[in-house]
Amino acid sequence: MLKILEKTRNGEDGIIAIGNHPAIIQSILDFDFLSGKKKPSLQCIITGNRKAHKCFFGAREVIVPCFKDIEHVPADIKKRVRWMLNLQSGRRAFDSSVRFFEAFPQALGGHIFAENVPEAHATELIRRYGRTKLIAGPSGVGILISGALKLGAIGGIDLTQIEAGKFKIPGSIAVVSTSGGMTNELIRAVAASGHHVSFSICIGGDRFPVTSLSDVLALAQADAQTKALVYFGELGGSDEYEIAELLKKKRFTKPVVAYVAGIIDEAFDEHMQFGHAKALVHRPDESARAKREALVKAGAISPATFTEFLQAIAELPRSAVRDTVADIETIMNRTPSILSTREIVDQSEIPAFVKRGKLARRGENSFASSALKALLGCAVSPTTAAFAENTFELLIDHGGAVSGAVNTMVTARAGKDMVSSLAAGLLTVGPRFGGAVNESARAWLSGVASKKSAADFVEEWARSGALISGIGHRKYRVGVPDPRVAALAQFAILLKKHPHYDFAREVEKITSGKNGKLILNVDGAIAALFLDILKECERYSHEELAELVEAEFFNALFIIPRSVGFISHFIEQKLHDEGLFRLPEELLFVRKGKK
Amino acid sequence: MARVKISEYRAKKLILGNAYRGLELQGGVKLPGRLTGQWVAKVDQGVKKRFKQGLVAIGSRSKLVAALNSWKKKGFSRFIVEPFVPHKENEEQYLSLERVREGIRVLHAHNGGIDVEAHPEAVKVFVVREPADVKKLVHATKIPESFLSHLLETFNANFFAFLEVNPLVVRKNEAYLLDAAALVDSAGAFFTRVWSESDIVETKSRHPAEERVKALDATTPASLKLSVLNKNGGIFFLLSAGGGSIVIADHAELTGAGKLIGNYGEYSGGPTREETYLYAKEVIGLLLHSKAKRKALVIAGPVANFTDVKKTFLGIIDALSEKVVELRKNKVKVFVRRGGPNEAAGLGLMREFLKREKLLGAVYGSDAVITRAIDEAIPTVC
């Protein structure tokens, strides 16, 4: 047990959290990052209903895997685990702790966060692990080894607190207390007086802490880095007599500065139960006064007031440690993503479909052929099939941010099945999302048939106040062409005539002359080229093309491939299940309703 | 609270099982029409030194009825009635069991009725760590093994924390538990079916505010505690954290203001805004009811690890907002010292609110010493 601090400082810091407490877990990653670790110490979380939990490591988001139980943790994670952070309730903490230490016999220790762990469970944990493991709790806020391990809420949970406590840098003062709040108060007092903490353990306010105060003192005595001990205790119990005993027997030889709270109990007629389970005087020797006097007699510095106590801490010898200041402002400005996903299609790689006047990728295109045959009722030429195939390829996915994909993911996260999630995505397809191909085909078809000039056509649309479907892009503009449009445009070379495509390009010249972003987009290019291909390769008449527009045929070119994309997003959510999705409140602007 | 008293009746019933002939009287349950022989009736509410206080009656049914009626008039409501075991004083022994770190600590003395604290020399101490220790215990105490091992087993399996049998009478293989007092571990309630909340006895009647906070505490993973100390006190505490709250109360005692404290309590473990609101409401209610001429509210605590200062302070502000007029009328000033997550935002909100409502005493954060708020509050109420 005496080697535990050393081992942890040497990098044996892998933590499994049993149960999820997002703020505490995030604070562990923040501590790791500020301490200069390359990787988070937290390995995974044991929790139901999700397979992943997102955290920040510095300003960057990382995904922490979640497993239903200890038995499901894969071997590569298992071998790095040394510490347990048990965040379950008092009803389950005993069972899960035993299961952890059975699965990880090499573990160094843990922290049991729960209050209300039965005494009989605590004594059984002591019997099993009391001699070999360092276990903080039941109850309290955990274990801190400066620069090496933050196991629990100890030292605070926000970045400002971690920075103010200065415990990313190893120091020379051990801080020990039963009380969680006071552990932190003392860590801050040590930091404020220009000292640094070597390690700190909150043993918890329960009657039977697994690792006892004497155990912690033995650890502090054996630790070469620790030069002094700062202790906060309360009335009730006999912990302080343990310290006094160790001091008297010279088994603890470093300076001890202690405060024993509870003088207030003397103001009442009857002994009172204070906040912690143990904080009640049963016998006269359990009073704060008696315990403080015993400590003083044994050689500890134990002042009567808290102010004097702080003064005594300030007077402890200092170690030569230089503070570093982290730019936490930048890290604090981080905003969490609200959905996590995978890049389903590489948007940056657009293949060449036509090379030197020929189809670049001659293949069977059998799915595209069969699909078009089914849709149109007749077999199609290789050029038509190839165009459909390439369109399918381009439209499988356009990232997780688009509304159809969002709906699919949100539905998947609500625990729904594939068909429901896919339907939720598909039901989004309409005039503003994904429905532009058909509308664009309608525009080009009517424009060519009207024999109007592109300028008149644009003027007419502009006057009616409508936007031309197939024109305009959020990102690309004149000078920065859309590579997908460029790749598809090569199909025009394969055709003798391409009136719809030409018309679309004429329209683009007019619109982009007004605004560089009003270029022919991928929906518009697909619509124009497909009209031309059907006309030339499949001998469709104008009337037949008009019927296809009415029947919304051109939207099928989007829906078929995008279904694949939605299903991919669905599967991704299931594989990386983060639980039910809820929009963060701060992303909502809520107006007051009328009364 | 971790260790709570259960009724003597329940303790004996658990230990002796069906062989136990005692009765429990409470909530309208009456004494049976016929009782043959000598019986004993006792108040069963965890009261110490019952015999001296006249809360024990021995005799026939009519004698017990008279005693029960007089006790009811005194406000007692839970009684135990059992057959009287005539015995000689020199038969009385002392036995107690307590759960300790290493196992079960057993205290035994051959003369009962003693005050253990006053006569440590008369008491032998044993620690039962493993089954083999029971044999040694039997040998040393001469208490029948069947009874002793059954007692230890019952103690262990049912989340007992402490049991005192005083006096205990042993005759051959029979053990008679004349008086018994038992503490159970309240955290065990979820794991056992043999005792429950209804077996837990309260020694003194609680203040309604304490009752409400206790009920609230039972339904949250956070910790909410409240004790009313002096209904007409001048300093009322909205403290946080188990340990830090004592440091602050200590400071009041050390500066001579201990008697002015109206209440003790603490919230910790990350209560929600709503839970903090409900808790703060009780403390503010106590403050407003106090007849003291000068009153102050001290909202103080250490630098929290994970309790959100902003969230909890919003709850306190919610509660204060409901009573600003009364608080102003009582000339109450509010003194604050607190640190922790969202400290700057929480303190800012509180300062702004107190200023606007003219309740501001002072507001301090983690850079001030933990006792700063109470230190400044005391002179305003003395």
From TrEMBL, chain A:
Pathway: Carbohydrate metabolism; tricarboxylic acid cycle. Pfam families: Citrate_synt, Ligase_CoA. It is found in: Cytoplasm. GO terms for biological process: acetyl-CoA biosynthetic process; fatty acid biosynthetic process; tricarboxylic acid cycle. It comes from the Bacteria. Keywords: Cytoplasm, Lipid biosynthesis, Lipid metabolism. GO terms for cellular component: cytosol. GO terms for molecular function: ATP citrate synthase activity. Residues 176-300 form the ATP-citrate synthase/succinyl-CoA ligase C-terminal domain. InterPro entries: Citrate_synth-like_lrg_a-sub (IPR016142), Citrate_synth-like_sm_a-sub (IPR016143), Citrate_synthase (IPR002020), Citrate_synthase_sf (IPR036969), SUCC_ACL_C (IPR005811), Succinyl-CoA_synth-like (IPR016102). The keyword Lipid biosynthesis applies. This is ATP-citrate synthase/succinyl-CoA ligase C-terminal domain-containing protein. It comes from Candidatus Kaiserbacteria bacterium RIFCSPHIGHO2_12_FULL_53_13.
UniProtKB/TrEMBL annotation, chain B:
GO terms for cellular component: cytoplasm. Residues 207-378 form the ATP-citrate synthase citrate-binding domain. It is found in: Cytoplasm. Signal peptide: none annotated. Residues 38-192 form the ATP-citrate synthase ATP-grasp domain. Transmembrane segments: none annotated. It comes from the Bacteria. SUPFAM superfamilies: Glutathione synthetase ATP-binding domain-like, Succinyl-CoA synthetase domains. InterPro entries: Citrate-bd (IPR032263), Citrate_synth_N (IPR056749), Succinyl-CoA_synth-like (IPR016102). GO terms for molecular function: ATP binding; transferase activity. It comes from Candidatus Kaiserbacteria bacterium RIFCSPHIGHO2_12_FULL_53_13. This is Uncharacterized protein. Keywords: ATP-binding, Cytoplasm, Lipid biosynthesis, Lipid metabolism, Nucleotide-binding, Transferase. One of its GO terms (biological process) is lipid metabolic process.
